[in-house]
Design a protein that fits this description.
The chain has 97 residues and is an all-alpha fold. It has one domain. The protein contains 3 helices and no strands. α1 runs antiparallel to α2 and α2 packs antiparallel against α3. The longest helix is centred in the first third of the chain and has 26 residues. The protein is rod-shaped and about 75 Å long. It starts with 11 loop residues before the first helix and ends with a helix. Keywords: Membrane, Transmembrane, Transmembrane helix.
């Protein structure tokens, strides 16, 4: 009888920076642009839309990786980091305007 084959082991620690850092960078760029360029009457609308974009980008990257091990931790790290970045941007908007 032949031995059952096991799927190759993927190093999930290697996947974390590849799927988290791009979302954080995109969120940071969006936050800076919103703080600097958004009209004075609706920066909060744009900040909330950028969080929606971060959510979509997170899931696109997670689907592109197609690795189920560590999916929840990678997704949560990505989205929590984006939320912190946008919270700081919101604080900057409140203090500046």
């Amino acid at each position: 009888m032949s031995e059952p084959t096991t799927p190759p082991v993927v190093d999930t620690a290697r996947l974390k920076p590849l799927t988290i850092v791009p979302v954080w960078l995109a969120t940071l760029v969006a936050a800076v642009l919103i703080v600097l360029l958004a009209p004075a009457d609706d920066p909060f609308t744009w900040l909330s839309l950028s969080l929606g974009g971060a959510i979509v980008l997170t899931f696109v990257l997670q689907l592109a990786v197609s690795q189920k091990d560590g999916l929840v931790s990678r997704t949560m790290l990505s989205l929590c980091g984006s939320l912190v970045i946008l919270a700081v941007a919101t604080l900057a908007v409140v203090l500046v305007r």
